[in-house]
Amino acid sequence: MLNLKTELQSQDPQIKIGFQNRKMDFFRKNSKKETGDSGEKLAQTKLKKHGLTLVNKNYRAKIGEIDLIMRDSDYIVFVEVRVRLNNRYASGAESVTYRKQQKIIKTAQLFLQQNPKYADMPARFDVVDIASGNNMEEYRIDWIKNAFQIESV
To answer: pTM score, two decimals?
Structure first.
């Protein structure tokens, strides 16, 4: 498990984190958007450490949103980030339903139409699952490459 406070502060000393001297439940004490933003920042940092470069983040279209768009060598990678407080019902990766996958794929296709320099690159769809630990300051990051694919017709 990694320490959330240390990791976020090491990424950017300007980050204001909702921790005090006592243990704080970071994910639960913040809004859903703040939690998502923190998760995306952690995912971006992890992927950069593995050699990926950021192309775009929070790409929005009418059909949907893609959290992170990154480049991994010759691949354009569309990343869905999931932050889960518990896995009672499903893990973060399992919560990316078929319907959500289709939205991501259609949004990715639109991105590629609007950004032709990436259109000839093979695409990959990854999921980064961030799960909190027992004391809620710790977390685990699972990076699932090729979490789903475009189905052939």
So the answer is: 0.76
